[in-house]
Amino acid sequence: MRVAIYGRPVNTNQVELAESVFKVLSEAGCSCLVHEPYFHFLKTNLKHLKEHEVFLTHEDLKDKADFLFSIGGDGTLLDTIFLVKDAGIPVVGVNAGRLGFLSGITRETMMEAVNSLKQGHFSLDARSLIRLESNHPLFERQNIALNEFTIHKKETSSMITIHTYLNGEYLNSYWADGIIISTPTGSTGYSLSCGGPIVVPQSENLVITPIAPHNLNVRPIIVSDKNVISLEVEGRSQHFMATLDSRSETIDSTYQVAIRKESYSINLIRFSNENFLRTLRSKLNWGLDSRN
Asked: Are 116 and 141 in the same domain?
């Protein structure tokens, strides 16, 4: 079994976790290839790390790995979509200890997880992506996202106006601090914190969630992901912030953007003891009597 390993080369607190991952994979007879910046980071912080083949881009990884291990949190896993793209390589999220809706494997369950992978005891959880298109260059070639796209006010406390269209048909002009276009996966993230609904991953929907809307009768709306959502923004300020998952750029009122479902999905690994509903209950403490 050939495993690619990705992590962010910034957090020394996760070095011991990475060392455990390499140890378990080695004991299971797996060969590893490591994202090059992460490998150099680990070499600096781990004295006994063996030499491994490295990769840097999607082209380096394609057809060379059976699985990709993301070591960190959900934000780290979001980075992997640019490495996997349409290659279909399943992603395993190894949680460094935070909330971890997407990264469910821990140090304690690593050996069991690797054995399950070798035996084929897992399922693929296909998660839809969104693609951003714009009349001006934006996010270069990294214009896909697993969670959400947002437009937010910048440099001012005044609200902005976001004119929103579905397949070219006018929906609404949101007077708000911003707007979130979320996938089902992203519905448990920023959108949820702004009052958006939780959407089951395979529901084939997108969620439009205003951020602090001026009109209290304006609420989040769920639409089919077959729609193309177009946005135009204006306000007192000349500049606004656009974000795509964890990346951000500054735009102005001349930008016209459109969000559509990407033609391919990313596959997350799910083991027999994991599912979306169980994750909800665990992470959000559903079903617990808070009176105790």
From this structure: no
